Amino acid sequence: MSPNVRPFADLPRNAVGDFRLHFYSAVLCITNYLRHLQDVVGQSPIHRSGLLPFLTGYERELRACIPDEMDLSDATPWWREQIENWEQETTARLPLRTLAQGLQLTRSELTALMLAGVVEEDIRFGSLFAALQEPLAARRPCLGLIAALSSIEDPPDELRDSWSTVQRLVQCGLVVAENQTAPRAEWVLRVPHVLWDVIRGRVTADINPGCRIISRREFPPLKKLVLDAELLQRVARVPRAMISTQVDAIIVRGMADSGRRTVIGSLARSLRRDLLFYECRGVVDATDETWQMMGPLATLTGALPAIAIDPAPGETK
Known about the structure:
The chain has 14 helices and 6 strands. It is an alpha+beta fold and 317 residues long. It folds into 2 domains: 191 residues, no CATH class; 107 residues, no CATH class. The strands form 2 sheets. A 4-stranded mixed β-sheet has the order 3-4-5-6. Strands 1-2 form a two-stranded antiparallel ribbon. The radius of gyration is 23 Å and the shape is elongated. It starts with 14 loop residues before the first helix and ends in an 8-residue tail after the last strand.
């Protein structure tokens, strides 16, 4: 069943409402791209395959929100403007807005992120992508297709290559590129399900067996930590230094079970943030999916990231 779009004023002023607006922005790009294909090449394999009828419901919902005098083919700039206005009037924490601001994502990059994940919401988009990408056998969109879909509304004289459209999304860990031995335009892209859940307003405490979000309420206030008086004073100055960006990261050393996580958790509590705790065993692998998405996950949730490592004697990380 497709998500239900209501008039913007009636959308819940939270992450769910923001997700719906961005989701339908991606759907609008898809329908406009298909119109473009039909205008350019006429009856494409998509039109002959019987895959298009499911989009009728989406277009009906889009049509109900867009002014009557406006054609759907011209509605993308208007829709994006409505999203901006809606977000400006919303005081709740919106993961997508926070992500776009924190990483300075362009509109095309944000749309590309949503396009990479639409199949998570409606499996019928998988069949559509597979038909569009023939003979590439993939039900998730490839890099070249996402670039084409997200740039359909770009000015005709604006040149862009497929890699630049999603480059930062891949580098930031927001999307994972599969089959990287293939030509870059054929890389199949997916949004890690954990990130997608947070984007759509569903935050799960347990990310995986080694990574979870711990509520700040589970940690004591800084002043109640059982520490040496001088050390406690030093720790108490850290939150202000972090708020003023004088300190970007801190290192807490100690024996196992010495309370390092409690100290970091209390710091997170003083900053009114939960703790994103990742217990990394062995050598840090830069290709590990959890490692790659720590940054965007912290940005999306507002949690303070903390990485516990256990180097062998003589090792540093």
